[in-house]
Each structure stands twice: as structure tokens, then as C-alpha cells.
Amino acid sequence: MNIVVCVKYVPDAQADRGFDESDLTTNRESVDGLLSELDEYAVEEALKIAEAGEGEVTVVTIGPDKAADAVKKALQMGADKGVHISDEAIRGSDAFATSLLLAKAIEKIGAPDLVITGMASTDGTMGVVPAMLAERLGLPQVTFASELTVDGDGVTIRRDGDTASETIIAKLPALVSVTDQINEPRYPSFKGIMAAKKKPVETWSLADLGVDAGAVGAAGAYTKVLSVTKRPPREQGQIVTDEGDGGSKLADFLASRKFI
Amino acid sequence: MFELSQDHEDFRAMVRDFAEREVAPHVAEWDRAHHFPTDLAPKMGDLGLFGLVVPEEFGGSADPEGGPFTALCVAIEELGRIDQSIGITLSAGVGLGINPILTYGSPAQKERWLPDLVSGRALAAFGLTEPDAGSDAGATRTKASLDGDSWVVNGAKAFITNSGTEITSVVTVTARTGESADGRPEISAIMIPSGTTGFEVAPAYDKLGWNISDTHGLTFSDVRVPQENLLGDRGQGFKQFLKTLDDGRIAISALALGLLVRMREEATAYAQARTAFGRPIGVNQGVSFKVADLAVMEETARLLTYKAAWLKDQQELGKHSVAEVKQAAAIAKLYTSEAAVTATRLATQIFGGNGFMEEYPVARFYRDAKILEIGEGTSEVQRMVIARNLGLSS
């Protein structure tokens, strides 16, 4: 079973994130980056499947030089090899272009049995790349899996909704996106950290993928960020004195903020 | 020259992540309840923390060229930054539990005990100290005599770390097995599996600190174990133990370093956040100079600890001598442990009344610091060792 996992290098969600004022792209300079936490679940799931049988796990990422750290982390966790797509022209790409680059890379890696992604990135959080990528690759898209089993030539997933859980079965090869409920991602061990240095990582440019520069980056984007607004500063809390009606005041407050 | 390898730094990031997520949220409660978290050991095992100095054939990851002992120190430092008891649990589990078996065990002993110890499914302890024999380890009174093909052990041990947990599998004890030709006691090391008849684990000590760490007194009344439970050579028990002391001292330095990092972090944050007379207390030199001193202690401790750890790894490769490691270990242990006690005093002072409250972690670290000046050789013993290495014999 050969598995490709798509991962993203994102600004640390714990840090104070912002945008680059010149072109309204994510500011990656002032904040430390890391492998998106939601993608750790995808890596873990791939490793569990590979460990249960035979097979190889390849991780793919797109991004500037530092994005190689996301690949490195996945290799430290236990993935076998990595691909880093990097090209100056990619800056400013939207989800549409991202899915194109990933599709081209996966075709170049060679037809995998399974493609696994996280449910969304922790920075953009659009969650559309898995669907777009499946469409481009002509694979069944099985998204938001909270449980995944591979048996013979098919996959079965459980997708949990607010009111019901669905069981979805698809034939391999397929693309599965996984939620943060699916497993408990492992920490890399010291052995894994040392072993990762010897694992192969290829860096591919647009030319390597046969993608035209006009199809990606800001030029090829189907969406455009028009403006960004800073999150409003935290307001002072409100103290309500309970005069016998504390409960209903609390309920009114929650209702006014649409929590209930 | 003044930085660790990228592997070590990647490893540090991983252990820090683990310690902050899996350990930090619970330590105040565990400390209050004097609770040893048995479930944490296998999690640490999965991370490979117990196997850092163990070869791959026994489930470890040691690559002599990769600075394995330095990696262990990084792990102890990062765990110790969150909680000292958890740091000593790892340090003792490896240094006192695993190391003697790895270094002196027969192939059968290694095969029997190491896999579970490396995976964190079991813990081993080492019993040297006795109620009447601490730094003077030669005064050991515990006796073992051969009866047929069994050792019969009688005596008592004191302050033995990791000796009474639910997963403690074996305790190695030093015992007199006879007298050598010059009349000095012959001391050997004997492995006593948990649960052996006559081997009693006393209730946990009521300690000033290290409340999460498992520490017990042990008694042995006609405890019979097979002859092959002798660890290493007969009569070499004391000598064997002395060889593991240097490692233990460097590990304690790493533990103290973790404390020093935390005190600098806590004191800096508090000095900026706490206001008095309308401004942060950190703008007053009475406070900021203390924080500056904490930073100096931390940096000095870091240099001494990792210099000693590096020497230890180099010595394993045959590039530096045991004597160099011994001196560096004693210097590092002496400085970092005394700095740790000073640092917790300064940090609690900056916290004022809050520093006396268990709600703030500095109070726990204040209680935990003192033992660093005592365990693995007191400060006085370190000074003795250092002076002796300088040619001043006592």
C-alpha cells in the first residue's frame, strides 16, 4: 500500500499571526512555522496503515524554503520519503492552484493507493483542497473521516455529523481527509529524528512538474484577498450582579452572542 | 562549538512539546497528592526516552556518534523544567535502573530485564544508600551469603528512587558478600525481583519535595534469589557503582538546569506582569538585578552541564579520559545544584507573598531544589572530588 500524505507548513497558531501588508498574503517571516497540527493526524493515520501491512508513506508539501520543516517533522514521525514543491512563482497561490500543484506532484510520484490529507489547514482553514485534489486526480473523495479502515481493495470511513454518523465505503485508489478525532499523533522519537536525516527528500520546481507559472501564484488565483482587518482588541469583561435574575441575564448574554 | 546539534535541538522541541502537553497540566495535582503517575512511564518509553543510551538490539536508539548521553541530558532538562520529580524519574530510571544492567549484566540478564525497562513498561532501581551508609558507601551493612545455589540477602536500604512503583520489576542492591584479603568488605551487586519473599518495600517517605518521585526504604529478611542474580563480578559491586556515579552527576546537573531555566522564565514574566506603585516591579533594580543573576546562573549551568555531557560522549568514543569526565561532572553538579537553591530563593522573593503559595509553581521548585545539593553526592563530596583531582588529597 503506497500512501501519499499532503501536509502544510503553517504559522504557529499559538503565536501572534498577521498578514504581509504589501500583498495581503500570510506573513511567514515574523512567526515560527510548523507542520499544521491537523496534518499530523493524516501523517499518523498513514503510518498506522503502512505499519500494519507493507508499503511506503510519501509526504508532499508546497511552500518556501522553511516549509521543508513540515516534511522533516513527518519524516521524523516515520514517513519514508518527502517531496517539497518550491518555486518563487507559487507565492500567493490559492486553493485552486494548490490542488493543481499537489495533483501534478502526486502524478509524478506515481499512482498511490491512497492519498490522505488533513481536514483543513490551521491557517487558511478553507478545507477545500482535499475535494479539489480528488477531482483533479479522478479519485473518489472520502472526506472528514473520524475512523478509517482499509480492507482489500476498499476503504471504509466514519464521518460524524451533529445528528448522525455516516459510514462511507469507496474503492481504492481513493482520497481520504481525516479529522482530529481519528487518532493520537505520535511524537517523533530520538531514533526517528536521527533516521529522518537519511531519508530522501526531493525538491521540485514548477518546471519539474510541467506547470506554467501563470497557472499559479497571484496571477493564477481564482480568489483575491481585498482587505484584511486586525482582530479587535480584547474588551473588558462585564460583571453582572445576581439579583435573583442572574441565570436569565447569563442566558440573554449567550443568546445575544449566538452561543445558544 | 557552543551549540548542540540540530538533532538534539529537534529532540528538545519534541520533549518540550510532550512535557508541556502531557506533564505540565497535572503536576500541581500529582505533587499535592504525592502521586506517582504510573501511566506516564510507558508514554516516555514510546518517545524513546529510556532508550537514549541503550543500543538498538535492546530497543534503544544509542548511536555513539550521535551524542546519546547529551540527548539524555536534554530530555532530563526539559522534563525538569516542567517538574523536577518527573526529571529524576527518568534520570534514575536510566542511570540507576538500566545502566548497571546494560553495563554489567550477562546476556540472559539483559534479555530478561532490558526490553521492558527501555519501553517504560517497567522501572528498575538501584539500592546503595543505607540508613547508616550514605556517602561512605563502603560502610554497607546489607549482607548476602551463598546457600547452595542461592544468595540469601539480609539488611536494609534507604531513599531508593523508583523502588516501589506498581511497575518496578527489579531492584539491584549492593551487599557484603565476604571479606577481601586485606580485611576490607567484599561488596557485590545482586538483583532482587519485586515481590520476592522477604523483600519489603516500606511506605513512601514524607519528603520536603520531589513528591511525585517514588522513594522508599527497603528491607530484606532472608531474601533468597538464584546465584545467577549476581550482577557483574563478585566483589566488584562498589567499583561498578562508582563508575556510574559520574553519569548520574551530569544528569543531576541537567535536572538543575531545567529548574534554572524555569526560574528565569517565571521570574521574568512575573516581574513584567506584577505592578506595584503604579509600574511593573521589574523596572526596579532590586528586582531586575535578581532576574539578571538568574540568567547568568542559567547560562553558566548550561555551559557546565553540556560540556560535561559532551565529554562523557567523547569519552565513550575514546577521545577523552575518564578523569576529565569525573572532574567536569563534579564541577557541573556542584555549581548547578547550589545555583538551583539560590535561584529558587531569588525567584520566590520576586514573587513576594505569592511565592509562598502553592498556587505558583515557584513554591514547588523551592521545595524541590534542596535535594539537588544532596543526591548523587553532596556538595561536600563534590568539593572533595574536585580538590582530589587537583592533587589535594584529603
UniProtKB/TrEMBL annotation, chain A:
Cofactor(s) needed, names only, are: FAD
InterPro entries with a match to the protein in the record: ETF_a/b_N, ETF_b, ETF_beta_N, Rossmann-like_a/b/a_fold
Pfam families, from UniProt?
ETF
The residues covered by the Electron transfer flavoprotein alpha/beta-subunit N-terminal domain are 23-213
Q: Does the keyword Metal-binding apply?
A: no
Carries keyword Isomerase? no
The UniProt keywords, alphabetically, are: Electron transport, Transport
Self-association or partners: how does it assemble? Heterodimer of an alpha and a beta subunit.
Family assignment from sequence similarity = Belongs to the ETF beta-subunit/FixA family.
- Entries under PANTHER family matching the protein: ELECTRON TRANSFER FLAVOPROTEIN BETA-SUBUNIT, ELECTRON TRANSFER FLAVOPROTEIN SUBUNIT BETA
Q: What's this protein's function?
A: The electron transfer flavoprotein serves as a specific electron acceptor for other dehydrogenases. It transfers the electrons to the main respiratory chain via ETF-ubiquinone oxidoreductase (ETF dehydrogenase).
* Record protein name field: Electron transfer flavoprotein subunit beta
